[in-house]
Amino acid sequence: MLKWMKDYYIGDDIKNPTRARARITAGKFVPDIYVVTLSDNPGNILEILPSSMLVQRGARAICPLIIGMAKGKDGAIRMVQDVIEQVYTETGDFKIKEYLKNR
């Protein structure tokens, strides 16, 4: 089962985010939507995954906490930049996990 952050980020380009989230959670194909997740790899901060990857049951089972979704890879990259800039501006550090837990 997918884990979504309570107040997850939504890209401006997504027309119906509630429907997109429901389809992704149900394992349906949602074209050109990418999810931003916390990384399980200690060398990374965040990861960008195409939602089409989450059609596979095994991928959904091991997917880290989803913190946002955006339309297109460029939108997802912009979202990651915005999140990192926001965290650094407010805390002076890059501790994204701690910031999102206390948000």
Overall spatial form: globular
Radius of gyration: 13 Å
Tally of helical runs: 4
Helix content: 25-40%
Structural class: alpha+beta
**Spatial order of strands in the largest sheet:** 1-4-2-3
What's the SSE pattern?
Answer: EHEEHEHH
Query: What is the end-to-end distance?
Result: 23 Å
Spans where pLDDT lies below 50 across 5 or more residues: none
Mean residue pLDDT:
94
What does this molecule look like?
40% of the residues lie in helices and 23% in strands. The chain has 103 residues and is of the alpha+beta class.
Features:
single chain, 103 residues, alpha+beta, 4-stranded mixed beta sheet, 4 strands
What does this entry show, briefly?
The chain is an alpha+beta fold and 103 residues long.
Layout of SSEs?
Blueprint: E1 4-10, H1 17-25, E2 33-38, E3 46-50, H2 57-62, E4 66-71, H3 72-91, H4 96-101
Parallel strand pairs: 1-4
Antiparallel strand pairs: 2-3, 2-4
